[in-house]
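Our platform keeps sequence and structure together, in a single record for each protein. Such a record has a labelled line for the sequence and another for the backbone structure tokens. This encoding replaces a full spatial description with a residue-level series of whole-number codes. Below, we set out a record of this kind in full and without editing:
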Amino acid sequence: MLRKASAEWNGTIKEGKGSISTESGVLDATQYSFSTRFEDGIGTNPEELIGAAHAGCFSMALSGQLTNAGLDPEYIKTTASVRLEKDDTGFAISKIHLEVNAKVPNATDDDFQTCAANAKAGCPVSKLFKAEITMDARLIT
């Protein structure tokens, strides 16, 4: 089984805002921000919620990495594809793939790839998984 969720982040880590959507439509451009995350589902499934959580966490982490590098992202769009497979021990999430598209004025691809790799490694949700996590990241110019 393959489930998908997506997130978009606009602006810097503290002043920006984002939205999370799930494939089922239960979450449809649901707002999230720094304050809703750090300060204060009918019909869905754990895999797409994990995908939404991972996509949202990664997008914010990438925004933070870019902001710390002196770059102001215009937008970051991330889709997390979560694969659930059955093996000899039962079902397990075997793989998560992050598909990332971002528009970051004045960023070089090297700077962007470094920030994306750091965000993938440092995102708290990424740290949860034993599954392989792969990524394709594209800077939109």
